[in-house]
Each structure stands twice: as structure tokens, then as C-alpha cells.
């Protein structure tokens, strides 16, 4: 049975004006993603679909240096704000782009339809149900808070209401910036970080709900069609997180975890993925959410730009059929877990 709605919990967007290495350090001129990826482009590949929308996830915009030329406790506030805004120029340009989306005021190359004066308040922006924006978690508390204040000001109230999460991407950072860049060790480190947050929450006894953590891309296990067995450390790391009911997992990013070539048909993909998906469904009941990782899914995806989004939908559907999921369990994956994790309301 087709889902009643889909919340795609993980997509990326950028305008035509942000397709150079000075906008995204990873976006070399020959990179296949070095072109506009707007909402119009996303809608073309998703085709006719159930009611729903997507969660935007930040795109790791360029920074000229790891930190601004400031230290906590030094300088006047106005000088701080100016230097931090200069240092974080590209992340703030990303916020401006998102603001144009929600306010329906596109510029040339943005790739979305503006708000419709005949009654469509949001235009294409209505599809963007929530945003996870960049945040400099590696900075000290004062610099971090100052950046968030600047970002909120740049965003404006309408966009800021849709900001539901913060992210600082560790993958691909230079040596010394993080202790480990890929594999199981970072997952274990994330688990330790989550434990420290929970200890701080218990000690501080501040009002409000616990921080929710959403793990992307199946926690990035190496995938192989010839050896479809999860690494024991990967299994144990996720099992250790499973008792925390505020930790969620995304069904996303799998195409890019295969070596070349990625299996191109649903049965082969399902054979490779089933042991991993079974473990995450056991660890995170009602907390596993669909995400496409568009357009990054096109890097490792085997069906080209027009077919990779749909292929991932087919794989997720086939897996739920294999597990004989009930209608309620399917709806959890397609949209309900994403709404719960991100606080989204349709």
C-alpha cells in the first residue's frame, strides 16, 4: 500500500550562485554536484507523490579558517559580531537562501517558485517543513552563542520558526580537526558525547525536553554486496544507544557507502542492506525515518539523476514488505518518525 504521505527527512539544496569551491570547499569544478540543485529540480525527480514535504539539511559551506580570529572573552560585542559574520560569510549566505525560500522571494538561480499571489502563501517554500542549519559546535560557548544570534537575525522570524536542528559536519574535515574521520570510531565518540549531554541535563535540571539526536545515513557502515554482514562494533555502538528514546536513525545515504559499483537493482540492494536495516529497526523502534539524501544520493546511486530518488523509495518499500510491516509501522518510517524527531506538524 502506498504511503499516505512522505516526509523526506534529509535533502540538500543550493542555488546556482553557490556552485564553486569558494561556496562549498568540497565542490570542485568537475564535481557532478557543482550545479544548481533547487526545489524545482527536486520536485522533477520525485514526480507525483503523496502529501508531504522535506527537511533541509545544511550543506557544509566554505570557511576560510577553522575558527574566527577571536577568543572567548576578548573584544567588544560589536567587533565580535562583525568578525564572526565575516568568518561565517558562506554559512550565513546559506541562511539567506533559506529565508528567500520560506518568504517566497527568489533570486535568479535559486530554483524555486515564488509565493503565488492567488493564494499559495509559500510557493515551493511550503514543501520545506523544517531546516537543520550549520552551527559551529567546535567553538567556545560565547562565540557559539554569538553566531546563533547573528544567524537568527539573518534568518528572520519566519525562517527561524522552521529551524529545528543544528549540525556541524565532521566528515571530510582535516587531520586534527576531529580524532577520526570515518568508520566505527566516530560513532562511538558520538555515543560518548550523547552520554555527556545526558549527564549535563540530569545535573542542570533545567526545564524543557531532552536534546534529540538524529543519526544520519545508517551511521555510515561500509556496505558490500559480497559481504552483507554488519561489523560487530557498529552493532554494539548502536545497541548502546538504543535505550535512549530521544535518539533517532535515518534510512538514508546508503548508496554512497558501497564500493564501486553500487548494486543497481532492488533485490541486490536489499540483500546487502537487510542485516543492517534489521538491526536499526530493533534498536530504534518507531524512531527510524525515511530520508533520500538528495542530491548526494546521485554520487553513488546507480540509476542516474532521474532515478536514484525513486530507487531508494523502492528499496525502503521492499524492505518493509520483507519485514511484513503493518500499515502503522510503514507510516512511522515514511513520515511519523521524522515528524516526531524534528517536531514537524503537517
Automatic annotation (TrEMBL):
UniProt GO MF annotations: hydrolase activity
InterPro entries cross-referenced by the UniProt entry: Amidohydro-rel, Metal_Hydrolase, Metallo-dep_Lactonases
Domain of life: Eukaryota
Gene3D superfamilies from the UniProt entry: Metal-dependent hydrolases (3.20.20.140)
Residue ranges of every copy of the Amidohydrolase-related domain listed in the record: 211-333
Entries under PANTHER family matching the protein: AMIDOHYDROLASE, AMIDOHYDROLASE-RELATED DOMAIN-CONTAINING PROTEIN
Family: Belongs to the metallo-dependent hydrolases superfamily.
Name of the protein described by the UniProt record: Amidohydrolase-related domain-containing protein
Amino acid at each position: 500500500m502506498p504511503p499516505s504521505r512522505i516526509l523526506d527527512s534529509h535533502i540538500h539544496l543550493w542555488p546556482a550562485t553557490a556552485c564553486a569551491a569558494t561556496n562549498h570547499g568540497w565542490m570542485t569544478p568537475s564535481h557532478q554536484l557543482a550545479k544548481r540543485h533547487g526545489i524545482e529540480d527536486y520536485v522533477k525527480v520525485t514526480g507525483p507523490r503523496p502529501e508531504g514535504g522535506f527537511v533541509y539539511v545544511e550543506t557544509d559551506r566554505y570557511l576560510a579558517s577553522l575558527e574566527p580570529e577571536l577568543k572567548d572573552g576578548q573584544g567588544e560585542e560589536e567587533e565580535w559580531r562583525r568578525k564572526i559574520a565575516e568568518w561565517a560569510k558562506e554559512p550565513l549566505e546559506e541562511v539567506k537562501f533559506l529565508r528567500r525560500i520560506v518568504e517566497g522571494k527568489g533570486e535568479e538561480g535559486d530554483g524555486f517558485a515564488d509565493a503565488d499571489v492567488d493564494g499559495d502563501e509559500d510557493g515551493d517554500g511550503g514543501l520545506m517543513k523544517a531546516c537543520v542549519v550549520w552551527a559551529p559546535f567546535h567553538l567556545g560557548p560565547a562565540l557559539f552563542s554569538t553566531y546563533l544570534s547573528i544567524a537568527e537575525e539573518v534568518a528572520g522570524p519566519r525562517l527561524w520558526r522552521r529551524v529545528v536542528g543544528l549540525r556541524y559536519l565532521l566528515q571530510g574535515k582535516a587531520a586534527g580537526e576531529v580524532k577520526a574521520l570515518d568508520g566505527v570510531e566516530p560513532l562511538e565518540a558520538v555515543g560518548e558525547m550523547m552520554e555527556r549531554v545526558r549527564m549535563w541535563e540530569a545535573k542542570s535540571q533545567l526545564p524543557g525536553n531532552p536534546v534529540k539526536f538524529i543519526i544520519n545515513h545508517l551511521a555510515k557502515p561500509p556496505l558490500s554486496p559480497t559481504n552483507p554482514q554488519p561489523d560487530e562494533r557498529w552493532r554494539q555502538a548502536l545497541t548502546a544507544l538504543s535505550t535512549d528514546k530521544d535518539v533517532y536513525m535515518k534510512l538514508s545515504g546508503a548508496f554512497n557507502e558501497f564500493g564501486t559499483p553500487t548494486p543497481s537493482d532492488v533485490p541486490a540492494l536489499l540483500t546487502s542492506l537487510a542485516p543492517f536495516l534489521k538491526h536499526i529497526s530493533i534498536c530504534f523502534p518507531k524512531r527510524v525515518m525515511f530520508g533520500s539524501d538528495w542530491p548526494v544520493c546521485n554520487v553513488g546511486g546507480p540509476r542516474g539523476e532521474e532515478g536514484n530518488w525513486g530507487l531508494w523509495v523502492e528499496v525502503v518499500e521492499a524492505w518493509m514488505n520483507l519485514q511484513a510491516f503493518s500499515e502503522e509501522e510503514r507510516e512511522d518510517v515514511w513520515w511519523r518518525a521524522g515528524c516526531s524527531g524534528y517536531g514537524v506538524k503537517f
